[in-house]
Write a structure and sequence with these properties.
By secondary structure, the chain is mainly α. It is elongated and about 115 Å long.
Amino acid sequence: MDAELLKLDEAIQATNADTLSLSSVTVHSHTQQDFETAIQTLESNLQKFDELNTALIAAKTDLSFSNLYTAIQELQTTVTDSCPACDTPLASVTKNPFTKAAEELAKLQGIKEQEAEFIAHKTLVEQNLKSLESLHNYLNLNRTTITILNGLIPSGTPLHTASPQYSLSDRNQIDTTVSAIRTQLSTISNYFNEVDSLQQRQSHKQITINANNEKVSEFNRKKKGC
């Protein structure tokens, strides 16, 4: 019986030779598609962010005229037949100043809604940036802890270092870095293939270990029955 146990133990050690070498390695899983999707989502939301920001800046510029529009509107109760600014008869003006004032004040009331939409979208873009940072940093962690992966990311390239901390106050940095990452992705397919291979081996590792443990348990049960 001891000889049989020794033989089983040798077989388990041989089977586990590869899986044990993987047991201490943490492979952070990600694909090229994960990066491409993150970048596409980010760039789409950045475009809308820029549009909302431009519109909000323009709206706040117009806000400086709010006191003027309010004053014109208040004068409507005392001046009804001419422009309160130039005394031109209302019948001769290009645009009725009181109508203009009412329209512009209505627009200015929408600034709070614009600000709320802008802030919500800014938060979304910041989340997109964090997602890209995480992918980038997990890739860099794989590269620095798994020797075989380190050689698949050329030195001196954007993905060979940790991710920068993106800031919306520096749009140029975001555009430049994201563009460089997108360009590099197509050149490191071997890296993503190897990550997938390591993931599959680690998955198989656990299945093998569980099977080996079951063999030992079964043998011990038989031994106790003798």
